[in-house]
């Protein structure tokens, strides 16, 4: 089976979030399962094309003009990665915008990318059995395929994956002209959304199958609370909607081989050496207290508003614990955490940045990993934490609900801590329960050893996608 995956970012070439991890790791796992896989992504300024080869030169008819486009290629782990070059659209310092401000021409940038992908497939002679697009940035692939490319790809089926319904690609309706889309599609059954054009909606309507990144999230997005205005549409198309939990790249996240951590290990009883090394690195007291790690965008969606209140409550009660936080995001949350860190220098290390080596150290050194998300389509942090014998503390939503079993006397083989109500006091209670478990060393070790054996590798999760591909292709 020949699969083409289309993504606006792909690790290790470009990344702003979890989509890049999926686009980098899933293809490798599909190849390992015997499929032929190609990936298409934009050639951003940050990608060094001297390490790529020129695969083709293609004329793309778009926005009432013909744009001559180079297509570059490299092959990694048996998977072909293709990059669409366009100096006007992609030669920029950032992928989608500067800070919280999106580039004003994102509709054109990613409309072009979607159309260029299909023209490139024609020029390269690639005829996919399945074309798998991801999020709003590549959603128009499904629309263009059905409208203009059925003769070139008569047997190609489409899968569209929603990684986060909160980002839909909603633009002024007059972009319909620039995007070469017929106005008869601008209806409630097509791309129209409150008198604007909605890319993600188009991806859903025109796809043969729609997936999201956990079974629980697939159900949640069909409700007004989590549907972001598309819950009615998703209920209408529920017959083609399913949830497949993401995997993690177990070669990148491997405590036995991880080059970023101070001491490699295969049993969590040896984690104390990493904990002490990280405490020294971050100028925290070197002692065996509960360490809570956070690697996250510091945003309300990630629960960081209730987390910032919760740790303040805990520390004010003289709790002997340490919090190591890595990430950046919303200024009010950053400011609140900075105040807490300043008041409790011996208990809180706040690192307002993205730092891959430090992220690895936090996973390997923490006793608990905190993810109190308001909503979480899948979440990778809890699965990465398992690899290092670190117990996640999560709210029961989306993929967190699917992958974490709450610690209690009634639960067999618990894997972490789960709370339900989105509230700082509930989170504080849950953190206190974790501290109680920390003081039961033998029991904590037993659970940590158990979670290290859990398999959330892409090799396993890829099989679910292969089942879906075969189902729609026939």
From TrEMBL:
One of its GO terms (biological process) is glycogen biosynthetic process. It comes from the Bacteria. ADP-alpha-D-glucose binds at residue 15. Residues 2-236 form the Starch synthase catalytic domain. Keywords: Glycogen biosynthesis, Glycosyltransferase, Transferase. It catalyses: [(1->4)-alpha-D-glucosyl](n) + ADP-alpha-D-glucose = [(1->4)-alpha-D-glucosyl](n+1) + ADP + H(+). Residues 287-442 form the Glycosyl transferase family domain. Pathway: Glycan biosynthesis; glycogen biosynthesis. Its EC number is 2.4.1.21. CDD domains: GT5_Glycogen_synthase_DULL1-like. InterPro entries: Glyco_trans_1, GS/SS, Starch_synth_cat_dom. GO terms for molecular function: alpha-1,4-glucan glucosyltransferase (ADP-glucose donor) activity; alpha-1,4-glucan glucosyltransferase (UDP-glucose donor) activity. Gene3D superfamilies: Glycogen Phosphorylase B. Belongs to the glycosyltransferase 1 family. Bacterial/plant glycogen synthase subfamily. Synthesizes alpha-1,4-glucan chains using ADP-glucose. This is Glycogen synthase. It comes from Desulfurella acetivorans. The lineage of its organism: Bacteria, Pseudomonadati, Campylobacterota, Desulfurellia, Desulfurellales. The gene is glgA.
